[in-house]
Design brief:
The protein contains seven helices and five strands. The chain has helices at residues 8-15, 22-33, 43-54, 59-70, 80-88, 95-106, 130-136, and strands at 2-6, 37-42, 73-76, 111-113, 127-128. The protein is of the alpha/beta class and 138 residues long. It is globular, with a radius of gyration of 14 Å. Helix 1 crosses helix 2, helix 1 (8-15) packs across helix 3 (43-54) and helix 3 (43-54) runs antiparallel to helix 4 (59-70). The chain has one domain: 5'-nuclease (Rossmann fold).
Length: 138
């Protein structure tokens, strides 16, 4: 089973039903729900997603959505080692992308799924959009 690390934008695409990306993200989560793939996210994604959703929804609804999300994904911790790697890295201009990348590395993820391929141009792990990944498994 493929271990996919999802960038925050993919999770928000699903939970906010952002067009035109919702369908692809929903397909990924459906595959995970059927145990065809394993989806992992950073604990940072939970924090960022809760903040973004709280701009649109009441806290009680945000918590309900995130509880359901946790049933389908593995939440990987953002720890001191990962923070140190990101802070000392010179290749990521966006620190949050560095946190995401080094979480994926630390937990031996096979593929990073993001809409922003350019943010991970120095990645040693394959990086794809959701659409690109879905085309590989057809």
């Amino acid at each position: 089973m493929k271990k996919l690390f999802l960038d925050t934008n993919i999770v928000i695409d699903l939970l906010s039903r952002r067009d035109p990306y919702y369908k692809e993200s929903a397909t990924l989560f459906s595959l995970a729900d059927r145990n065809k793939i394993e989806i992992c996210i950073s604990s940072l994604t939970i924090a960022n997603t809760s903040y973004i959703l709280s701009q649109q929804l009441k806290t009680i609804k945000v918590k309900e959505i995130l509880r359901k999300l946790r049933l389908v994904v593995n939440v990987l911790p953002l720890n001191d080692k990962i923070i140190g790697l990101a802070l000392n890295d010179e290749t990521f201009t966006d620190l949050e992308d560095g946190f995401q990348y080094f979480t994926a590395v630390e937990y031996e993820q096979e593929i990073i799924i993001t809409r922003n391929l350019k943010d991970f141009k120095t990645s040693q792990i394959p990086v794809m959009t959701a659409q690109q990944f879905l085309e590989t498994i057809k």
